[in-house]
Specification:
It is built from ten helices and eight strands. By secondary structure, it is of the alpha/beta class. An eight-stranded mixed sheet has the order 1-2-4-3-5-6-7-8, covered by helices on one side. The chain is globular, with a radius of gyration of 17 Å.
């Protein structure tokens, strides 16, 4: 593991493989190990950079209220060390919250990117109903703690097909998140709830945009992804027909 300092906190990340750089950003209540299956494939042809977002995995939490844009700046601190020294454009791919961060990064540092991947993610802001659900989630975490919250939500992130074929996956996701504190989850949820609509970025981003959507994704519905796919000038779209919000090809240790 490597580390950088951001806002006086240690942010850890891995770098594997050689070739054109790709940054993989995990989502809410996950860490960088979420990508282990993809790393094995990608490292054969790419330099893969996998951070633990602040507060997740080995990375330290940054105190106070943060925005999705702040998390993008944390990724920028890694990029400055690993990529910008060579002046190479790179691809950024994010799962769920990681996709929100990818778009915030593009908003601020568009010239550094040659592609964006939104994996079960969206450029749209939360609507009022979604914001209310986030607020209820925050209240639940405050009253019941992180572990109980994750146990209650993990089942909804997988399709029925996935749960039947691999019933251990929801438990593995909870295990992956076991070190997350209530404060970290609340910080994430507030940042997600308050993020702006960034669909305009898709319209003026002239490089390829990849959408990967789960057919049974309740958190980021397929229809939402289809609507966005027409915004970007260059789009690739992949539907995982048996997948919920956590892709069937994501490996959970």
């Amino acid at each position: 593991m490597k580390q950088v300092s951001f806002k006086n906190k240690k942010i850890f990340y891995r770098v594997v493989g050689k070739g054109k750089p790709v940054v993989l950003l995990h989502g809410f209540a996950e860490d960088g190990s979420l990508w282990n299956y993809q790393i094995e494939k990608l490292k054969q042809n790419f330099q893969v950079i996998i951070p633990d977002l602040p507060g997740s995995g080995a990375s330290e939490m940054i105190e106070g209220k943060l925005s999705i844009s702040d998390y993008a700046d944390a990724i920028k601190s890694i990029v400055d060390v690993e990529i910008r020294k060579d002046a190479i454009a790179f691809t950024i791919i994010g799962h769920s919250m990681g996709g929100y961060i990818s778009l915030a990064f593009a908003e601020k540092y568009l010239e550094l990117l040659n592609g964006i991947g939104l994996f079960h993610s969206t450029s749209f802001a939360d609507d009022d109903q979604k914001k209310e659900a986030r607020n209820k989630g925050i209240d639940f975490i405050k009253k019941n703690g992180a572990e109980t919250f994750l146990k209650n939500t993990a089942q909804n992130l997988f399709s029925e097909t996935t749960k039947k074929e691999n019933p251990a996956l929801p438990k593995k996701l909870i295990t992956l998140s076991k070190n997350l504190t209530p404060d970290v989850l609340i910080q994430y949820y507030e940042a997600i709830r308050d993020r702006p609509d960034r669909s305009s970025i898709l319209k003026y981003f002239a490089k390829p945009v990849l959408f990967i959507q789960g057919f049974y994704d309740n958190a980021t519905p397929l229809q939402s992804g289809l609507e966005q796919s027409h915004m970007a000038p260059v789009t690739y779209f992949k539907i995982l027909k048996d997948s919920g919000h956590v892709g069937r090809r994501i490996k959970l240790n």
